[in-house]
Design a protein that fits this description.
The structure is a homodimer of 161-residue chains.
Chain A lengths: L9 H24 L6 H13 L2 E2 H8 L3 H14 L2 E5 L7 E5 L1 H19 L5 H20 L7 H4 L5
Antiparallel strand pairs in A: 1-3, 2-3
The first copy, chain A, binds a DNA duplex (30 and 30 nucleotides) through helix 1 and helix 4.
DNA sequence: CAACTTTACATCGTATGCGAACTATTCGTT
DNA sequence: AACGAATAGTTCGCATACGATGTAAAGTTG
């Protein structure tokens, strides 16, 4: 959609811009990762594990910003691919500990190099990016605190009672 | 993930921030729309149709920023819900023309009111939002032009040949 | 007019995201 | 020791996103 269109308030436009930017990034990563089986969420997880060391699924959920119910199947696929290992914590069997494997480290190194190479050619303005990150962080914090009223089916249909 | 973590270059951080902001917005809309069956992509489509009048699927794809192969099933669901109508163009039977129904207009009005109400409570800084939109637009344009090299399976596995 | 190319849309297969509900384990209270 | 609450993770069902492929219709060329 051209930016001539007005989706309503400024927030709606902001949302739509974030929607398009997110998918532009998704496509960029999809192109870089090609047919390797790697995806952006998997890449994020590998990075988090590389920096933090082994984590429980809940900890990983928190650091990677991915829901538990998204992580469970995702981590199972990654484990069967061989980039990480899942193990029940013997001290607390509710927990599963996720550890990067050697193959995972190798894959991450290669992925990081490919991504960095692609980003180097983008030519983004570092000052704009830094400011944008800060502003987006503000917006995200406020959105997560919001408690908007729910639309009902009756209201959607224009029925008043 | 806390922003202490460094995903690598500034671009990677930017991507992760966009990823989280997009999902924060998605959740916000999901909360507002509740069990009505409405979703953010459907909301965008209704808005585009409301402002542009009837469009072909390709035109809608372009204005809503949604791929044709995502739109086809989406529009079928929306048509069976009753908010829009699909009709083959008699002049060019390759094309399907999408038209908002009266029910669609009513639903969109209600949705816009609910969304605006939720946004009104957010308290975002208008100047930050405007700048952010501009910067994100720049980034999106560059990402869409990028032609990054693809990672191969061999490179992922650390094999040199 | 036939053959080929292009365009528009649809389907397939697989990916993720998330609300809801479920199962298993641990912790706290009585 | 028994029971309920809380925690951790899993599964279900449905949503979207998109590369690849397929079908049908229109346009172009010789």
């Amino acid at each position: 959609m051209s930016d001539d269109h007005d989706l309503g308030p400024l927030e709606a436009h902001y949302c739509f811009t974030a929607y398009k930017l997110n998918r532009a990034f998704a496509r960029f990563y999809q192109t870089v990762f090609g047919d390797t089986g790697l995806t952006y969420p998997k890449y994020v997880i590998l990075n988090v594990l590389s920096e933090s060391g082994p984590l429980s699924i809940s900890q990983l959920s928190e650091r990677a910003g991915v829901e538990n119910n998204t992580l469970s199947p995702l981590l199972k696929r990654m484990a069967s691919f061989g980039v990480l290992a899942r193990e029940r914590d013997p001290d607390d069997e509710r927990r599963v500990v996720i550890t990067l494997t050697e193959m995972g480290r190798t894959a991450l190194d290669a992925a990081r190099t490919a991504v960095a190479s692609g980003f180097a050619e983008l030519g983004l303005d570092p000052e704009e990016v830094k400011r944008s990150i800060t502003y987006m962080g503000h917006a995200q914090a406020k959105l997560e605190k919001a408690k908007p009223a729910k639309l009902t089916m009756a209201a959607l249909m224009g029925k008043t009672d």
